[in-house]
Amino acid sequence: MVASYPADLGRLVMMDESFGAVLKRHAEETPHADAVRYDESSLTWRELDARSDDRAAQLLAAGVVRDDMVAIALANGTTHHEWTFGAWKAGATPCILPYRLPAHELAEIVALAAPRVVVGSPGLPQMVAKHIAPDSALPSGNESVLRAPASAWKAVASGGSTGRPKLIVDHGPASLTANIDQLIEFVCMPRSGTILNPGPLYHNAPFLFSNLALVAGSRVVGMARFDPEKWLQLVERERVEWCFLVPTMMHRIWSLAQEIREAYDLSSLKCIVHMAAACPVWLKHAWIDWLGPERILEGYAGTETPGTMITGTEWLRKPGSVGRVAPDTITIRGADGEPCAPCEIGEIFFPAASADRFHYIGAAPRLDDVGRMSLGDMGYVDVDDYLFLADRRTDMIIRGGANIYPAEVEAAIDEHPAVASAVVIGLPCEEFGHRVHAILEVQPGAALEIANLSAFIAERLAPYKRPESYEVVETPLRDDAGKVRRGALRDQRLAWIAEGTPLQEW
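The structure assignment produced for this chain is given below.
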């Protein structure tokens, strides 16, 4: 996640204590204090420990053994944390899945994960894996459950760059290792404090930080769904100390009327961490002016990689940077594979050891000839070793912090009988950073209706992946080899927008 950690943490931790054992320790130390709260639903540390014991017992009764996948397809809420810790206590790896995916897309991911159990609502499609309803109850009085921790502590679903979904499996054990403890320190997360989670738990960062907070002994206040003014209300009411946001959330909060923003007491906030998408410089300046640079921390990383971090104070000296690169970590390389000169844009590569931290299911990592790994991001490092992003993934669309792979959207559109070919690009959007725009080549003689196409895609893709605008062209989008110059198509439309030329959109 991060490139380096403080050398001296100034505290002792119980190394390699399993997450389940950590929870039991917190339950013994502060049994009646709140551990997690979503709206009016809350669990004390003792209740979270007991309920996750029940969930672990259910999983074991369903045949779960160490290192099995347990798919969790649930909305934000206390139940999500019950099942997550239940999976860890049973020695399994929680595989977090979006709970509102269309049936065929969810079935594809479940087929990749091959979980022993799928935990989700009764409305989930029938699948090979055993299904458990999230609120199913066991008789009380189950014995404490604590199996040997899984060797991989989480698996995260992601759309594949080839148009197929993939899973990213983190090789870190489900234990409080030195790396986990140092990460908690490095992101300035409080211990025995209060954090706020406004993001969906099926995304990596909200899942990561919420559960790290519980491991750190901090109370988690969660939002079922993000709302900008409610975020302000919760920070004030719950005396929140730490929060992770994506730039879209920051934009929505900042877009509130000034009198609304200033009506709430945010003095308890000590740190806001933001990442997952590029933050506009103007928006970053606005938040620094509002809360102060010492309370803003920005990170750059992939789900599967280390990365960089930068404080607000440091950022003011290097506006637009995502952090200083530690020695022997990130390198920038040209098309020939050679290192780029300072301030020369190239592809961002992570050290070879990054590929040992995880594995993909359904895809292969992008490695160079010596094992360095790339996520497809472009950028440069200046003379002071600060990293700047030139284009966060040349083809990937990042909408409100969510990654959208054009090939996946194109594959869904291309299934429509009236579509000969489709190319999907990201175009600017003030609220979400980017919007999904589809360029279509229609089959000769076919009649294509946008309402019909939209309904067709809605059956195949989650809402955030669906195109928000369409454009029909007369010339072929791909050459005879099936290749497309997606970057050229995007650049052409960006130029039209800059010139004020309207796109021929539906």
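Interim note for the steering committee: Residues 1-12 have pLDDT under 50 and may be disordered. The chain has four domains: 1-16+177-323, 17-165, 325-391, 397-499.
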